[in-house]
Amino acid sequence: MCRDTACPGTGSPSPARILDYSTLTDQQVVQLARDGSERAYRELIGRYQRPVFSLIYRLVRDREKAEDLAQDTFIKVLNAIDRYNPEYKFSSWIFKIAHNTGLDHLRRRRPDTLSLDGSPHARTAAETEASTITPESQDETPEQFTENRELGGEIEVAMGGLRAEYRTAIVLCHVEGRPYEEIAEIMDVPLGTVKTYIHRGRKELMQKLEHLRC
Amino acid sequence: MNEHNHPAADRLEAFVEGTLQDGDRAVLESHLLTCPACQTQVEEWRGLFSALSSLPQFDPSVGFANRVMEHVRIAPRAAWQEWTDRAGALAARIAPKTNYGWSLAVAFLALPILLGGSAIAWLVSKSYITTDALMGYTRDSIIEGLQGVGSTVITFVMQTELTAWVVANIGAVISTAGVTGLGAMLAGAGSLTVLSTWVLYRNLFRSPSRESDYALYSL
Ligand SMILES: [Zn+2]
Q: Is the separation of the CB atoms in B87 and A90 below 8 Å?
């Protein structure tokens, strides 16, 4: 068995590079990481940095903060890789940690307004508004400039007004193309709740977009 | 359906999403032919779905992987971990695959133990044990000891032998014990059955995974 650490050769490409990691399944890459291959760790980061960062960025809507939280997510997952239960999909695991890391941050920031249990059943617009996380206003920084470019579009602004749970469900469904069953596993809620999140989220988006166009 | 009987917004959403049943879709399509209001709504849903599907992924800043790797410990797994892995994989192969399988296995393993246990308890409580009953008691003790080992095969064989013994001696049992003893035994077995039913129920309707399930030990 030829792994990157065990292979001789100084110049690139070394014989280890013959093993094309991109053709391996997540489970196979995880196994190589558990065997001590740094390249396997980097392959996992390469595969999931965009999806994980995108999800967290849309949750916290602050580029710098999202980088920190995405970094925390990867550090937590990769340092626990030898304890990972391969019966589950790796993607579900890392998305679950990412979602929870994002929510924890939002909870710490707005402990008074974000009620995770009560808010899915907000009945009035005021209740919904109260449980919605909106970006903090701050002076224009380079990050803010990028954020305005990235999240300033009509649909992204409307997304920003949704409850965090709706946002995660919609991003996982529409951006990541995850099936409802996996989203339920990631968010740790019943399948019916995922359908409700997505349905209500879309409905709110319709209303917000209509409002933006008027 | 006509202009004054529009389908619910949910239906239009499901139509655009493509999750509507064939029959319902046909009805809705024929309604759409004559209803400009619903046509407009369908167009709005289409617009939303296309906007959502064009949402991009974002890249973290350059050097993200390096910043992560600065905080990651890379340690090849110790030999003992490989052995626990193998033992775990073996256990996973042998063990039932579903909650339903688990429930059946637990129920089948528990039943003879419960019945045998109550039979022994009842026999011991008698002051006048006949030779037949004493022999049965001894045999029960051995059976229970072997069942304690937990081998499914042995349990199955002993279960049939135990059943045969109970059937063969049921007359003697009743004549020695009287109705009160038998009633107490049945009551005991009954309450234990209720308990196993509850365990079965808990297994069959267990809620899905939590974050901790994803790691073999807690994170
Ligand atoms: Zn109509």
A: no
Residue type, A20: D
Q: Is residue A199 part of a domain?
A: no
Instruction: Give me chain B's average pLDDT, please.
Output: 76
Asked, for residue A143, whether it belongs to a domain, the answer is no
Report the complex ipTM: 0.77
Structural domain total, chain A: 1
For B68, which of A45, A100, A185 is closest by C-beta distance? Answer: A45
In tens, the pLDDT along A41-63 reads 999 999 999 999 999 999 999 99
CATH number of the domain that A13 lies in? Answer: 1.10.1740.10
Chain B 10-69, residues with CB within 8 Å of chain A CB atoms: 10, 13, 44-45, 47-48, 51-53, 55-61, 64-65, 67-69
Cis status, amide bond into B112, omega within 30 of 0:
no
Gap from CA of B11 to ligand 1 centroid (Å): 11
- Of B53, B1, B59, the C-alpha closest to B32 is B1
Whether A39 maps to a domain, the answer reads: yes
Report pTM.
Answer: 0.62
Taking CA–CA distances from B46, the nearest residue in chain A reads A206
